[in-house]
Amino acid sequence: MQKSDWWHTEISDISPGVIRYHGYSVEQLIASEGVSVGSMIWLMTRGEIPTPLQAKLLERAMIAAVDHGPQAPSIAIARMAMTCGVDINNAMASAINVLGDVHGGAGQQLMELVSEIIADGRPVEVVVSEKLREFRARKKHIPGFGHRFHPRDPRRDPLLRLVEQARDAGEIEGKALEVTLEIEKQISAGRTRPIPMNIDGATAVIYSELGFSPMLGRGLFVLSRSIGALAHANEEFQSQMRNKGPENRTVLPNYQGAAPRDVP
Fold first, then answer.
1. Burial of 190 (0-12, 13-18, 19+ CB in 10 A)
2. Do 149 and 98 contact (CB within 8 A), yes or no?
3. Where are the stretches annotated Disordered (predicted)?
């Protein structure tokens, strides 16, 4: 079979009777009990099979972000799309397409911020203080902290405990953890109600510590939330409802336009 450089890749080696990913045969990957779905995500994006602790951290982060109920726009959209008679892939794609800078992008934004702070080289508390002043001056929200629904995101503590364990075991450096804890400390200073990290913050710590780029951090969140979109789209399909909008049919939007008038 002829080879061409029109498309070239270091990821997959495919030819008749052969499937290899970064040199590993699919037969061996299937047979290996040590290769999980998380390991495959790592292999496909990073080129190597992770250590068991690396795979565990990646998988725990992805498990934590799978779903946040129909009040999350991405999940609500997946469910509404399903009632419009589309296939499940369309419903999942609809959910994924709204995971942008506002809904789903905070993790990537925090990873970028953490990377800048680490690269600065000055004491962490000094750089964090400077960055926070910049955010406040621009009246910008600090990504990855606070939650509109949870006083303290229940996913924060178990994820950060795993990060601390990996740091203590020498598997990660702990630099991203140090930076984000300092941010959390400084933005909560003087407040009666602290502003803890949310799921975006906690997963950003893990993905940063594991060496993923900020762009891949967003992609991993999208993969994770796709599972929730799949489950909710499937559940909504069982209802057999049609054209289900964002509000119950008995509720109308509050019209605030012009009063009734005649066409001139």
1. exposed
2. no
3. 241-264
**Sequence ranges of the domains in the chain:** 11-50, 53-244
Q: Which two tokens stand for residue 34?
A: 């040590």
Distance in Å from the first CA to the final CA of the chain: 72
Give pLDDT tens digits for 203-260.
999 999 999 999 999 999 999 999 999 999 999 999 999 999 888 889 999 999 999 9
Choose which CATH entry (1.10.510.10, 1.10.10.10, 1.10.230.10, 3.40.50.720) describes domain 53-244: 1.10.230.10
Quick one: tokens of 123?
A: 């004491």
Give residue 150's pLDDT band: very low, low, confident or very high (50, 70, 90).
confident
Distance CA 230, CA 24 (A): 29
Tens-digit pLDDT profile for residues 1-37: 788 889 999 999 999 999 999 999 999 999 999 999 9
Long-range contacts of the stretch 169-173 (C-beta < 8 A, 24+): 169/53, 171/51, 171/53, 171/54, 172/57, 172/209, 172/210, 173/209
